[in-house]
Amino acid sequence: MKSQSSEVVAGNYVIRYLFAAGGSAACLPVIEAIGVGWFSTISAFFLVLAALGTWATAIWGHEWQESMEERWPSRE
27: domain range? Predict the structure, then answer.
């Protein structure tokens, strides 16, 4: 995986910017459809999911990385 670090970084940015663009485009129509309260509740739910994902990565991320490196050895 270390030989593919630039590809991973590029993919990370693509995904982040696609989600940011989609969220920006959907924000106002969704608020008009369901209201500010429900939109805030749903946003808080996604925030909690993201926090749990960050926590899981901090706890088990090294094991996940080792597992991936065993499955796909470096192509150096």
Answer: 2-71
Q: What is the pLDDT of residues 11-20, one digit of tens each?
A: 999 999 999 9
The DSSP call for residue 72 is: S
Q: Is the pTM of this model over 0.70?
A: no
> Is residue 76 helix, strand or coil?
coil
Residue with tokens 């150096």: 76
Q: DSSP character for 1?
A: -
76 in a structural domain: no
User: Structure tokens of 12?
Assistant: 């990370």
Residue 20 covered by a domain: yes
- Enter the tokens of residue 60: 């088990």
Q: Which of 62, 65, 59 is nearest to 2 (CA)?
A: 65
> Total domain count for the chain?
1
Distance from chain centroid for Cα 69: 21
